[in-house]
Amino acid sequence: MGRVSPVYVLRLGHRRERDKRITSHLGLTARAFGADNFVLSGEEDPNVIETIESVSERFGGDFESIYEKRPMRWLRNFVEKDAGYGTPGVAIHLTMYGLPWKETIPNIPRDRPIAVVVGGAKVPGEVFGICQYNISIGNQPHSEVAALAVFLQSWNPDGADASNFTGGITVVPMESGKQILSSEESSNLS
Ligand code: SAM
Question: What pTM was estimated for this model as a whole?
Fold first, then answer.
């Protein structure tokens, strides 16, 4: 897989009490499967951001998480003006009502940043129109975490490779048991 353009994940409708765990898992899944930025919206929740940031500090990489108070303004700006690099990007809304991911992902342009939009509480109808793609991971209701993981793995099969996460501790794959290398030991590997 050649150089992959920047990937943002926008989480809509976070509810601080009800979604604490699943939104944290969503951010960790975004990071672990190769996204670059997590944009949290809905109710502000510093604990979620701290959870994700602490994993990034310990396990390396340069993943960033922010809170965005006005997600629809952020999303419109992303697709119409600036996706963080001076040019507009492509927004992909994951929804069970969308077109099938296997047939649709190959049509998504790969030369500009993408924003993967996942819902939580009621998703505003305008999201379907702002996003250039509405994509389903099967047409059954399931979870934003599962939908995001499948999309990211399909978008960038190398996204979860350990080589993407430098500067932190390293988990050594073992047939049985656990082995971790410290940051210093990990840096000596490269
Ligand atoms: N109540 C929300 C609504 O108004 O549609 C949806 C709740 S659903 C548990 C949360 C999110 O999971 C959805 O917004 C969507 O991003 C994702 N999701 C769930 N099932 C999906 C599917 N089959 N394909 C793609 N995304 C899905």
Answer: 0.95
